[in-house]
From TrEMBL:
SUPFAM superfamilies per UniProt: CO dehydrogenase flavoprotein C-terminal domain-like, FAD-binding/transporter-associated domain-like
Origin species: Mesorhizobium delmotii
Pfam families for this protein: CO_deh_flav_C, FAD_binding_5
Classification via InterPro entries: CO_DH_flav_C, CO_DH_flav_C_dom_sf, Diverse_Substr_Oxidored, FAD-bd_PCMH, FAD-bd_PCMH-like_sf, FAD-bd_PCMH_sub1, FAD-bd_PCMH_sub2, Mopterin_DH_FAD-bd
Listed name of the protein: Putative oxidoreductase with FAD-binding domain
UniProt keyword Signal, yes or no: no
Gene Ontology MF annotations: FAD binding; oxidoreductase activity
Keywords, sorted A to Z: FAD, Flavoprotein
Sequence ranges assigned to domain FAD-binding PCMH-type in this UniProt record: 1-219
Length: 325
């Protein structure tokens, strides 16, 4: 590993000042340290933010507020999370091994880099790692890559499971930075690759995620996360679906659906949601709505199976959500 320096921030303001002058934030380090070892990323300065008071989990009304430095394991096991937002708890448990959940922070999980193998191969082209060098995945082994939101420059999927749940639940985030504080939907954090895939998020230099707010509602308690993968543990999704349903008098009042493993960012499926409004929660309605998820897909040589797997996964996730008492 190449030389670097690390300092510990004693306050949010000190952390932001250090990052604004070129340092990189590090919390759990479960992604960044690996990339530094592989020399995919070579930051010269790191600022350790683990001392910052951003680990709390609290409830305001029906809303759940999660500190950006709360560990995934703590969030998944928290009684208020399991009571108010079981979809978040389930997606966190499905998202990583117990060891990683104990280390990784919520904010870090949202900002983790892609798991495309070509991103870590320094001897092949990757526009995320080296802009203008090409995308080896397009003509390479691409079974795990995206079919939605891709470009001629990048086809890598976003790897986070909890991000899919947060997007489905209309979560928002609070960010502090050199230019002040701002609030925006978690969905707006993630960029499409277009012709600049190395720009993965909308944070400004020095911006620090402070907390995540998840609005409550009847849909939040009738929600499930389904992850389809090559093996049962410690594996990224081939296709995943977060589904939440508000059902009144035997009719779907509101549906929330997002998919992972298929898009270059967590993929909200609003056409599917709209198709379910006013329908009975039965398999026919689920299947008809799920077919809308494949609009605009661009399958590659090895991942065309996802075009069929995506709607099937959505149907099963909706059935699971509908079964919640």
């Amino acid at each position: 590993m190449f030389p670097f320096t690390m300092e510990k921030a004693g306050s949010t303001e000190a952390a932001i000042a250090a990052a604004a002058s070129g340092a990189r934030y590090i919390a759990g380090g479960t992604t960044l340290v690996d990339l530094m070892r592989d020399e995919v990323e070579r930051p010269e300065r790191l600022v350790d933010i683990n001392r910052l008071p951003l680990t709390g989990i609290r409830v305001e009304g029906e809303d759940l507020i999660i500190g950006a430095l709360a560990r995934m394991a703590e969030v998944a096991a928290h009684a208020d999370v399991q009571r108010l937002q079981p979809l978040i708890a389930e997606s966190l448990i499905e998202g990583a091994s117990p060891q990683l959940r104990n280390m990784a922070s919520m904010g870090g999980n949202l900002l983790q880099r892609v798991r495309c193998p070509y991103f870590r191969m320094l001897d092949v082209g990757c526009n995320k790692r080296t802009p203008g060098s090409g995308c080896a995945a397009i003509e390479g082994l691409n079974a795990g890559h995206a079919i939605l939101g891709t470009s001629d420059y990048c086809v890598a999927t976003h790897p986070s499971d909890v991000a899919v749940a947060l997007v489905a639940l209309d979560a928002t985030m609070r960010v502090q930075g050199p230019q002040g504080e701002r609030l925006f939907p978690v969905e707006e954090l993630f960029r499409l690759p277009t012709d600049t895939p190395h720009l993965e998020h909308t944070l400004l230099p020095g911006d620090l995620i402070v907390e995540i707010r998840v609005p409550g509602g009847s849909h939040a308690r009738r929600a499930r996360y389904l992850k389809v993968r090559d093996r049962a543990s410690y594996e990224f999704a081939l296709v995943s679906a977060a589904a939440a349903l508000a059902i009144e008098d035997g009719v779907i009042r509101e549906a929330r659906i997002a998919a992972g493993g298929v898009g270059t960012r967590p993929w909200r499926l609003r056409a599917c949601e709209a198709a379910l409004a006013g329908r009975k929660p039965d398999r026919q309605a689920f299947e008809e709505a799920a077919q809308l998820a494949t609009e605009g897909v661009r399958p590659l040589h090895h991942n065309a199976f996802k075009v069929a797997l995506l709607p099937r996964t959505i149907v099963r996730a909706l059935e699971m959500a509908g079964e919640v008492a």
